[in-house]
Design brief:
2 domains, globular, 318 residues, alpha/beta, 12 helices, ten-stranded mixed sheet, Spore Coat Polysaccharide Biosynthesis Protein SpsA, Chain A
Length: 318
């Protein structure tokens, strides 16, 4: 088996047919299988998968979990990946789809010709369910190869749509910390780039669909659980990379502590906000203007700040 297509889905009955059909439409000179990992959908998605299994026996394989595996589909991916037989695996989210029947062939040809590359991705179109204008994810200034240096930054870096990626099936056991991350793409790409460069093909060959049932709509930057998971993920990545990018990643982690100050769970908690404000200042080492604003808004107790303001106003009155 040359390629295992892995489609990861949960409650996406309105989209899953198009995803599977776009995989079945691939024209290749090699055999490939399609594994559809369903995270215990309750909306009829798994019944559609079973229909495709009956219509395409041995080609479409449903991986139907007996319960929801959690972690935003991350465990679903890992458990589905265990069953793949391909030398390479191609990823697709259940609400996305491929638009070029030569996609797999082009990417496999690239990896065959570039044995140093651990993965390859291509350009993708981003579309919105609410009718907002679509656009291409990548511009004309992209490189042919990307390394760890391109993927680690003070901000979150994302320019590879999940459904545009094909990987060498070379990691037999993902580290334990990977299972705890609610983001699969970021740590997976880091682990792959650690092993070698990632190639790029400029052709637009897939659609990344933003819809309210998609995973991206569940990553709330004002939610404590999401922010804590990101902090833990980047801390684990820092250790995984032997702290080679410690200065940069500390800035990245600090950014999530800054967001934590406005988390909905902390709105009435002075001590927690003050603690994380000091944590942010220690890790980020921002300029004096930001230090002053953070100390004023999150560290100085409100009664003390109010008293200080009153004293200042009183001096003006006198």
């Amino acid at each position: 088996m040359k390629v295992s297509v892995t489609i990861i889905t949960y409650n996406q009955k309105n989209f899953i047919r198009k995803a599977i059909d776009s995989a079945l439409a691939q024209v290749t000179n090699f055999p490939f299988e399609i594994l559809v990992g369903d995270d215990f959908s309750s909306d009829g998605t798994r019944e559609i998968i079973q229909e495709y299994e009956r219509r395409h026996p041995g080609k479409v394989i449903g991986v139907l979990h007996p319960r929801n595996m959690g972690k935003n589909g991350g465990i679903n991916f890992l458990e589905t990946l265990k069953l793949t037989q391909g030398e390479y695996y191609a990823l697709m989210d259940g609400d996305d789809y491929w638009t070029n029947p030569a996609k797999l062939q082009k990417q496999v040809d690239f990896l065959d010709a570039n044995p140093q590359c651990q993965a390859v991705f291509h350009n993708a179109e981003i579309i919105y369910e609410d009718g907002s204008p679509s656009y291409l994810l990548n511009g004309p200034d992209m490189k042919t190869y990307y390394t760890l240096d391109d993927l680690v930054g003070e901000q979150e870096i994302w320019f590879m749509a999940t459904s545009s990626t094909v990987y060498r099936n070379s990691i037999k056991e993902y580290p334990a910390w990977f299972r705890e991350s609610s983001s699969g793409d970021i740590p997976r790409l880091i682990l792959k780039a650690k092993m070698g460069p990632i190639g790029y093909i400029p052709d637009v060959m897939s659609v990344y669909r933003k819809n309210r049932a998609g995973a991206s709509f569940h990553d709330y930057e004002w939610d404590e659980q999401f922010l804590r998971n990101r902090i833990q993920m980047y801390s684990n990545i820092n250790r995984e990379l032997d702290f080679k990018y410690d200065r940069v990643l500390r800035k990245n982690i600090a950014r999530y502590y800054r967001l934590m100050l406005d988390a909905k769970q902390y709105k009435q908690s002075y001590f927690r906000r003050a603690f994380y404000a000091l944590k942010y200042l220690y890790m980020a080492q921002p300029d004096n203007r930001i230090i002053k604003d953070v100390v004023r808004d999150y560290v100085v107790p409100a009664p003390l700040l109010k008293a200080y303001s009153s004293i200042r106003l009183l001096s003006y009155k006198i």
